[in-house]
Design goal:
There is one protein chain. By secondary structure, the chain is mainly alpha-helical. The chain contains nine helices and no strands. The protein has one domain (4-9, 61-275). The protein has helices at residues 4-7, 43-51, 65-89, 94-109, 116-140, 144-165, 172-197, 211-242, 249-275. Helix 5 (116-140) packs parallel to helix 9. The protein is globular and about 55 Å long. Residues 22-37 have a biased composition (Polar residues).
């Protein structure tokens, strides 16, 4: 899976690629035959017991879609609040937020079990990063941040609709293509940064991210981010169907936030190139 958050968590992996893992949940105590004070159940009591609804995922401690939605919404709310404070108070802290967010992102991505505290701190750090950076973009191009936010929401909704409709299916071939695209984009971006550091070419975003070439690369990056969202949705669906523990909803929410942050940054940069 392209998203390292889901890729490094064994509970979200494809059952075809691993042996079945069991996540036993502690249950209540059971009474054994012959135990003191045991009483015989009559027919009416048995009928009443059978009439009770079966335990759902929440009662058995399994992850549900609601768990993922609530945690994702909470992390995004913290991110937006942190971004708003940074925007109005100290936009220059975006560099600190970028470094802290990168470190926390790597730590969370490679942890076997989710840490709600570290994931929450990641969301706050990314808010500082995005808040300060967005302020600078808004100063350069009035109204660009609102456009980027709406575009991010639109791409997210479109990816979810396509996934739910079954028109885009996550197959091994689809995953390999996205992974190869991400590797190629990473190499391209690193080369562009190196050229910027050595003063080769020009442009606000480097010699390889300016003009129509920058537009083409930006569109490819947005398409890769949208495809990554589809794979994230498939990982979450698989986790819910396999009945993984509810604590891993933090991982799912973290993975979605990582992809959404990347998507927002690519759209922000793409819109800035169009404005030029």
């Amino acid at each position: 899976m392209p998203n390292p958050v889901f890729d490094n968590s064994p509970v979200f992996s494809d059952p075809a690629d691993r042996r079945a893992r069991t996540n036993a949940q502690p249950g209540g105590s059971t009474a054994t035959a012959g135990q003191g004070n045991a009483r015989t159940l009559d027919v009416a009591q048995l009928d009443e017991m059978y009439a009770l609804p079966s335990a759902g995922p929440r009662e058995t401690g399994r992850m549900t879609y609601d768990d993922v939605i609530i945690r994702t919404g909470g992390l995004l709310a913290l991110l937006v609040a942190s971004a708003a404070v940074t925007w109005g108070v100290a936009p220059g802290l975006w560099v600190v937020g970028a470094i802290v967010g990168l470190v926390l992102g790597l730590v969370n991505a490679f942890k076997r079990k989710p840490s709600p505290l570290l994931i929450t701190l990641y969301a706050l750090a990314q808010g500082v990063f995005l808040g300060g950076l967005s302020k600078f973009y808004e100063d350069w191009h009035d109204g660009i941040v609102g456009q980027a936010v709406l575009a991010t929401a639109a791409v997210f909704a479109t990816s979810l609709i396509l996934f739910r409709s079954g028109k885009v299916r996550v197959t091994p071939k689809f995953t390999r293509m996205v992974l190869l695209g991400l590797v190629g984009y990473l190499v391209f971006s690193l080369l562009n940064v190196v050229l910027m550091l050595f003063g080769v070419g020009g442009g606000q975003f480097g010699p390889m991210r300016s003009g129509w070439l920058g537009v083409a690369v930006g569109l490819v990056a947005v398409a890769l981010a949208a495809a990554s969202l589809v794979i994230d949705f498939d990982s979450i669906k698989r986790g819910v169907e396999q009945g993984i523990p509810s604590q891993y909803a933090w991982y799912a929410a973290f993975g979605l936030v990582v992809t959404l942050v990347w998507l927002y940054l690519e759209l922000l940069r793409l819109l800035a190139i169009f404005r030029q």
